[in-house]
Amino acid sequence: MKDILDAYAAGAIDAEEARQKLLQTFYAHGEEFLLDLHRRERLGFPEVVLAESKSVEQVIEVTRRILEANGQVCISNLLPEQADALRAHFSNQELRIAGRCMTIGPAADPLGCVGIITAGTSDIPYARECALVLEFMGVEVLTAYDAGVAGIHRPYVSLQEMGKARVIIVLAGMEGALPTLIASITDKPVIAVPTAVGYGIGGKGIGAMISMLQTCAPGVLVVNIGNVIGAAAGAVRILRGFRKDI
Amino acid sequence: MKDILDAYAAGAIDAEEARQKLLQTFYAHGEEFLLDLHRRERLGFPEVVLAESKSVEQVIEVTRRILEANGQVCISNLLPEQADALRAHFSNQELRIAGRCMTIGPAADPLGCVGIITAGTSDIPYARECALVLEFMGVEVLTAYDAGVAGIHRPYVSLQEMGKARVIIVLAGMEGALPTLIASITDKPVIAVPTAVGYGIGGKGIGAMISMLQTCAPGVLVVNIGNVIGAAAGAVRILRGFRKDI
Amino acid sequence: MKDILDAYAAGAIDAEEARQKLLQTFYAHGEEFLLDLHRRERLGFPEVVLAESKSVEQVIEVTRRILEANGQVCISNLLPEQADALRAHFSNQELRIAGRCMTIGPAADPLGCVGIITAGTSDIPYARECALVLEFMGVEVLTAYDAGVAGIHRPYVSLQEMGKARVIIVLAGMEGALPTLIASITDKPVIAVPTAVGYGIGGKGIGAMISMLQTCAPGVLVVNIGNVIGAAAGAVRILRGFRKDI
Amino acid sequence: MKDILDAYAAGAIDAEEARQKLLQTFYAHGEEFLLDLHRRERLGFPEVVLAESKSVEQVIEVTRRILEANGQVCISNLLPEQADALRAHFSNQELRIAGRCMTIGPAADPLGCVGIITAGTSDIPYARECALVLEFMGVEVLTAYDAGVAGIHRPYVSLQEMGKARVIIVLAGMEGALPTLIASITDKPVIAVPTAVGYGIGGKGIGAMISMLQTCAPGVLVVNIGNVIGAAAGAVRILRGFRKDI
Amino acid sequence: MKDILDAYAAGAIDAEEARQKLLQTFYAHGEEFLLDLHRRERLGFPEVVLAESKSVEQVIEVTRRILEANGQVCISNLLPEQADALRAHFSNQELRIAGRCMTIGPAADPLGCVGIITAGTSDIPYARECALVLEFMGVEVLTAYDAGVAGIHRPYVSLQEMGKARVIIVLAGMEGALPTLIASITDKPVIAVPTAVGYGIGGKGIGAMISMLQTCAPGVLVVNIGNVIGAAAGAVRILRGFRKDI
Amino acid sequence: MKDILDAYAAGAIDAEEARQKLLQTFYAHGEEFLLDLHRRERLGFPEVVLAESKSVEQVIEVTRRILEANGQVCISNLLPEQADALRAHFSNQELRIAGRCMTIGPAADPLGCVGIITAGTSDIPYARECALVLEFMGVEVLTAYDAGVAGIHRPYVSLQEMGKARVIIVLAGMEGALPTLIASITDKPVIAVPTAVGYGIGGKGIGAMISMLQTCAPGVLVVNIGNVIGAAAGAVRILRGFRKDI
Amino acid sequence: MKDILDAYAAGAIDAEEARQKLLQTFYAHGEEFLLDLHRRERLGFPEVVLAESKSVEQVIEVTRRILEANGQVCISNLLPEQADALRAHFSNQELRIAGRCMTIGPAADPLGCVGIITAGTSDIPYARECALVLEFMGVEVLTAYDAGVAGIHRPYVSLQEMGKARVIIVLAGMEGALPTLIASITDKPVIAVPTAVGYGIGGKGIGAMISMLQTCAPGVLVVNIGNVIGAAAGAVRILRGFRKDI
Amino acid sequence: MKDILDAYAAGAIDAEEARQKLLQTFYAHGEEFLLDLHRRERLGFPEVVLAESKSVEQVIEVTRRILEANGQVCISNLLPEQADALRAHFSNQELRIAGRCMTIGPAADPLGCVGIITAGTSDIPYARECALVLEFMGVEVLTAYDAGVAGIHRPYVSLQEMGKARVIIVLAGMEGALPTLIASITDKPVIAVPTAVGYGIGGKGIGAMISMLQTCAPGVLVVNIGNVIGAAAGAVRILRGFRKDI
């Protein structure tokens, strides 16, 4: 770019030519510029590698590259052999695992507090993955498991334990009624995650998801079935707002 | 049949011939026999005429025929012009109407008590039809409208008002969580009726229905969307049990 | 609570303070109160552990806890290794198994009689699980297997065997027509359970379920595909009514 | 073609040239040839004009053209204004109408007998259209309306009236169980037509259709919802076999 | 029955009493009567055992019972171990196998001829099962495999080979267009069988099935995905008509 | 409650009796207590009346009641006659309307800023309703309409205009890609609202909704099709966090 | 931009400052740059206004703006009153209409030839809209209507008439088999458009669409149901390639 | 044919007889004629063997036959054992493999250039199969992997690398937004391939497919989920146009 500026300053090219060349430069190097822009965004949430559909080699390679660039990486939907290979390969790194999810690298700076409530025991593995990712992002996590609506008092009690949390993530399968109940007794942001628990019509989380989207409680925000990383990312977006002056 | 018996008594035919003829008789007149059998069943619930897909003349004709045979008739899914025509034609009969449902003839003998709980104001027209049919069958009906889960205490309070009821019919649209909640705080039979309230994915009662089928509360029994007559009939079947010695 | 009462009695706090403190107490200990309430409900039906999505350790732990609290427990959707582990761990208990369902602890007090009718041989495993759970709840079970509609007389004959039953549970896959037929020849409560028998369009029980919800017989009550425990619980709710004065 | 033959006979072209020209001729006039072929097929069933998506002018024009070519035509899914226009325009023709279906021209030669059984009153309009089309094809039609499964004996009785019929067409909406029942008590060909009767999940004939495809009775053949013309055409195909020596 | 007749003849009971007793007799022994009736139907098509959802022991037991009663039996959806066990157990019987389908016992008397046309190589296993069942029923089978529409002439050629056939069974997966084409160039009955060939949207035969139900060719009759036994049974129903005088 | 305390203080009842009576009191008056609790929640978002399924009288009555209790009310899914009636009846109130949504009463205290971005012109009516509700809640609203992905730069530019906003609500129909794009260039919370714009497969907003749930951008939070009130309520939940110390 | 260049040339800012300012300039004016880029794209296909969901005023306003900018505009999904208003408002413009589609302004320069084949008469309105848009883009259009597969020769004959066409657009509803047939007898690009013709299962074009996606002919490219503009745009993209040297 | 011509020339038959015989000849040998016709089509794209549903022997046999006839063959959806067997059996042939796809025989003559862009790493295996098939057809392939919309600049940059390509094939799973973006910044033909990447609602590529069909960018042409061979065939159809004079 300096060359163009100098050529213009030297009168070797006129203003229009300079403009053209600058635009071309920009155009040619658009990637870097935009990557800069993109990096700011990435500060908000770590790169997540979807392992399942990749070979062991691909997972390690992609993980290594992101780790070099960002210093931290999150891998989801891990198969056992992928998890083993990553553990072996990055044994000198700070490495944590929950369910099919792994984080490598140090956790981010403290960001605030999020509560996770689950409807049943079957939802706990999802909650653990969600907590892992949140803690990796610097979030303090409060949990209340097994708060399902079949015991009508449990949602109420579980919410009592969420005191400091600025966002509540609610995980439920089956009929997925818990987020509706939680949202009707708190004014905090509620992110609902349907889990793939259920059977027959509406099974595999379909019923829970539809139920959450049809909620009669105002302001329940939903992610796809089992998308705990999306829920965590949504919560992180909210928490980051508290650190900014706008 | 007497002819066959007499022929046999008179020796005009032998036993085998008599047996053949009797079977043929039965076979030929199977309808009447089975209609007898059937009538006993009908005592349990009135004939219901689905008006919507019939002409005004057909509705009147079918109604008249059932009324003559049974002394009472219930008509559902009435269009306004059908309702008007029926009212005009059967003006000398005891005639009640709720929403798109009409009953003609005197109510049956007292049968017991059923409670109806609705989640929201939009469910009330369904509840009114359900109550009409139940009362026509001799059932005392207790109602608690607007007991939706968005106010977590409301299901609980609504149940308090159901004291004498032997069956609870719960109507809900949207996310359909109310029957799950009711069933988790009572051990009475709970019949869940999804109503066609809702929008977008899971709209027109689909979400409510799936939610009720996926319930994590044990023993919620479900009928199709808006099928208040089926729910009433199910309740009547249960109540009739209390009048029998088995 | 006594401390508050005494403080008030001693004049250390005034009535309003006492009221506040009592409410806080209640609020803080709401769980216990509500658990009491909940226990009454549980008397109606045992806790059911959904095994499938839990580890062997979790299943044993949850089972043990419920067993200590309630004296009986039912586990469903068992994987073979879970079943083996439970059998080993609770070998000193009264333990029964059918299909993927297990009960531990003594059966409840006698509660009445339920009939189970299946459409085909493939539905029998479902019926066995259903019977196990019912018997565990103190219910006498009558069965008539293979009463499918392809033999038009079979539904009729099967119903003859249901004499004493106060509720009929009908299991069917494929086109799911059997509950409709049964309900058109009895006035007893009919609970329909679609089973995951079928293929192609409407397979895995979807066709049977839809058929049952679309029934033209009045009062067929439906649970989700394969939900024999829900059906059993629904029947138990009905039977318990016969033991109460309302 | 004769020109080519003559040119070859005259030695004006050689065998290869003649072959090329003949193929070109064929290729160019393939349509006529194939139309011939096609006509044989058409003898089996009249051209059917789907009126609904056409303008009044288009319907009249298409009808006129087919009528000129074939001497008879069938029009389906008629809107009222289309029906009126056709009646006016072809007033000098033999013209019959049932529901939204019209036939113009004389009926075909006698072809045999088909039975039509309906489950409920709402299915009768479909049956009338089906009968109209069959009779137009020369088929004698026997009917038994309102043979629904809710009265278990009715299917049986209705079948008694089908004596001479070589094919049974069964129309049913709701849970669509009737074809299964009919097929389990006759060995005649059974063509099942789901009608758009029903509501909620599986409504608009979806439940009936799925039920018929999932039938546990062997050999039930199905057409799309409300496709009475397809059912009639299928029956005609079967009947025509009886007139051939193969 | 003779006792009742004699009692009447002897004047021990009057006509009304006799009538009541005869009806009771009939009622009590309805099963046998209806079984008689049913047996006639069974002559039309052999009992088919759906093996998949049964244990090896159950399959053998059911097979044995039907074989004793009827002299022939057909088993479908066989798992390899079930097939092996049947082969071992019924080694002294005439036993044929195709794909997952097995027949035991001698074929029925000759019944006529059916043609089977498949769209692609992947449909052939379905065709083989279909042919096995048909031949077991005494049907001569003509086949034309790989007649798919991607080669526009192939459907036409394949039909040429079907000369003697009175019914054409067409199997197709993917876009399922073949039955439409066949039905537009023959006036014979066409039974369409969608096969579970395909992928993505409309995969597993859904697309083929819908296509067949939406056909613009008149009179295509459809069975569920992969239901070759239903198709065979439908063809047998048609063929049997040619042996009757009505 | 004071009576019980006094009775205890006076020694008229012992501690256990007092405890029992206090619990009964609580139990009997649970509603009030919980309503208190509930009221806190309501402060977060106004009561919303779903007008569509109510009569004009019902809408006015419910509106009046809420207005008396809360001083402000929001009505959605208004039919024209309902809107007219409300305008006439509450003409002395501060009343605003957008699309099918109306607010009555003064706006709440300032709460912060939310940005609304729409993909196309067809989404603007949804945006207007959303803005109305947000402003009623005291929220400052920034808008950028027509930012659809078909012009790749538009999402980027639209985001530039959202400076002060703490939450971005993105509305899109058709393929619903916009929220994904917005979420990949901002770290603010993104709430995605599918609109009922589209046709054919995935029409009526289904495609947009699924697309938003499948997003590859982390942290997109979704509400049901057209649920602008839910989106507004979700945003309000987030904004309220900024006013609290936790 | 010249100011920055001059400031640098004058030494008022250094190279780094100049770079920063240029980037900011770009950033701030990114829209214009990208609009330039975008305009090139738009040359490929006119802006299309989706009228249906807009008010009459909006449609006129948007149309006017695009017309001023581009000199031509296409409006789709017009309601009658919108069409009338546009006709009145742009009466001094070259204006053409087909079905619910309108073009305003002169057609583009000649671009090549496209063939349109329809399966049935009901597809012709779609074809007319498609032709209108293509001709507006400078495309010569050949048409062959009513080439449906029910007459097996018709697809073949219709293709004969497509001689000069470089792309074939095939429209079909019902079972949607025509594109498969066309694609199996030509090696030209085939774009398949399902039309909303059909009923029952797979109705409204769903069956046709799935059929086209499941095609066994290689290389059939599909657009959404009724998306004739998308098909036209796809064809234009292909034709434009012939005018470029790459 | 010459015999007929000669017979006519010799006067042994008259013109009508000759015509009849010629038609019969054609009719009898229609297959060869049409095969000729068909072969021209086949030149456009190699025969593709769908391996998955065939036995190892069938795959080898079909492959061998096509190879003999055409000199080249493509096999898709290979199972590992099938791939091994083919490799062993055709070891003396030019054989290439990618993912589950194999080509045997020499590549076709150069045909032009196609670009392949993928949204994410998980789409690369699909891209490799697509490239293999294209290269086998003589197509030069340019690739840009991992151009997903989560980095908003990436689609733009990826397109820069597609300079020479006359067609762009875009593969994407999840929300499937990439083809829309690519199509909004290029006027080249865009073929969109949804891949089976995704989970929950809209998983297995359903969401991506619907998104592509709902695209707001004009002219995106779609194939079924994972149908890379269809996409390649579509591209080849377009490229072949450049080699013809029309």
Quick tags:
homooctamer, 246 residues, alpha/beta, Rossmann fold, five-stranded parallel β-sheet, four-stranded mixed β-sheet, 17% strand
Describe it.
8 copies of one chain form a homooctamer. Chain A is of the alpha/beta class and 246 residues long. Chain A has 2 domains: 31-104, no CATH class; 112-245, Rossmann fold, CATH 3.40.50. Chain A has helices at 2-9, 15-28, 30-43, 56-70, 80-89, 124-136, 154-160, 178-183, 206-213, 228-241, and strands at 48-50, 73-76, 95-98, 101-104, 112-118, 139-144, 167-172, 190-194, 220-222. In chain A, the strands form 2 sheets. Chain A has a 5-stranded parallel beta sheet. A 4-stranded mixed beta sheet of chain A has the order 1-2-4-3. In chain A, β7 (167-172), α8 (178-183) and β8 (190-194) form a beta-alpha-beta unit. In chain A, α1 (2-9) packs antiparallel against α2 (15-28) and α6 runs parallel beside α10 (228-241). Chain A is globular and about 80 Å long. Mean pLDDT of chain A is 85; it is low at 27-43. At the D-G interface, α3 of D face α7 of G.
